[in-house]
Amino acid sequence: MNTTQALTGDEVGILLAAAVDAPSMDNTQPWRFEVAGPVIDVKLDEDLVLPAADPASRAVRIGLGAAAFNLRVAAAMLGHESTFAVTPDRAEPDVVARIFLTDRSSPITELSCLYGEISRRHTYRGPMLDHAIPPMVISALTGAAEVEGAELHWLDDDATRKLGQLLHQADDLDLHDEDRLRERSRWVGCERPHDGVPDTALGPMPTGPAMIRDLAAGFGPPDRDSAVFGPQPRIAVLSTEIEDERAWVRAGLALQRVLLTATSSVLAASFLNQALEHPGLRAQVRDLIGRRSWPQMILRIGYPAQAEARTGRRPWRDSVDRIGVEP
Ligand SMILES: Cc1cc2nc3c(=O)[nH]c(=O)nc-3n(C[C@H](O)[C@H](O)[C@H](O)COP(=O)(O)O)c2cc1C
Question: Is the CB of residue 256 below 6 angstroms from any atom belonging to ligand 1?
């Protein structure tokens, strides 16, 4: 393996365009990037945190981990090996992940195969088809989380029903929390070409009881479409053994590996994280998965039954602090 001297401008464009396609809570895109030769830093943008819903910046770090995973996938597609450090330097607390690229000889790796899924993946909040996910696909998704050091717990019917009650309580708490409502309305609803979650990506309102998260609850457009949500889709909880800032970034890498693997099987996911944004309810979700690990994301996974709406992104250049590349 050779050391990569520096990236070309074209390579930087491909890498950072992939990074910003990652999911982030409320699509705030809370990242900044710095490229120095073959090293890419993923930094936390303090102006894009969500103090009311995410006071510890746990979700922010999950989004940054997902962006770092996309960088690694794009690097693999371009023929680079990558090594990875989480919070590499105490002197630079805003650097959440550092990726070192080196050249490699073999063209195809398992990571590069996921590159095509990056632009296909998006959060899908509509009804799912009544098709069971084959056991082979379930184990591929579970394995994807494990490769990144996380766990994916598939809830059975009883645990899913209990989770439904917790979601209900979380929705109720959120509706009575003015700070959260104000914060979310800054990012959710209306037309939003470059960030936030536009009306078109909110998904329809269910005609009956359904396990969803309505991101615009309390302030959303009155004329939303409605749809029958049908039977329960599968719910999986992504968790980490450790609960600290590094583990949150690791959870983001695992999340994105799971999501890209799901996309490659034509599956779609949305998130029911309202129950993780209140410590008391999060503790009860932890009970549901056996108390050994910390729940980081709640995924609702299935085969989408409707056309898919997308969120926008800021141009990747707007999230760059510095680029040092080959002339
Ligand atoms: C840490 C994290 C938490 C999220 N929580 C929720 C959630 O609770 N409900 C939801 O519908 N979407 C949630 N999302 C999805 C984001 O809203 C979504 O990624 C963002 O709007 C960008 O859209 P995209 O995923 O379609 O590219 C979350 C994403 C991340 C990374």
Answer: no
